[in-house]
Amino acid sequence: MSLVPLLVDVSSTIEEATGFLQYLLVFVFAAIPVIEILVVIPIAIGLGLDPVLTGAVAFAGNVLSVYALVVFYRRVANWLQRRRDDESEPSDRYARARRLWDRYGLPGLALGGPVLAGVHVAALVALLAGSRSRTVAAWMTTGIFVWTIVLVAASAYGVSVLGIA
């Protein structure tokens, strides 16, 4: 999947909406694996949405989708196992997340996962490796929070320096 058309679609969808609907879209896009906060926060702030509100809404969308994954992970794991039986190799994202887990454990996976593998894949790897659901939820929340702050600050700074919005 090419990233450029995805970025254009996310950007144009948020830009075409107005008011509350823009923030609702930020929430929804932040909850979708692959898009997540890494994509939606810079786009939304670049389009002129309030950085603090964008960060809060994106954080909520991303965290709630991870919590849903934690609650339903056994079903997701069974689905992935059936899917993996059809494939000979795990995905690159899964392999990156697994390497993070092997090297740094849950804290490293939670802090590096959102950028390197995606928070949903990182959470699933931690759960499949046997971590307790509450511990995974707490660490993933911490990782998402840290990256939300970094992305909001960097995006707001970039927009001000470039004079985009």
TrEMBL record:
InterPro entries: Sm_multidrug_ex
Transmembrane segments: 20-45, 52-73, 109-129, 136-159
Keyword match Disulfide bond: no
Keyword entries, A-Z: Membrane, Transmembrane, Transmembrane helix
UniProt entry tagged with the keyword Kinase: no
Pfam families found in the cross-reference section: Sm_multidrug_ex
Protein name: Putative small multi-drug export protein
Provenance organism: Natronobacterium texcoconense
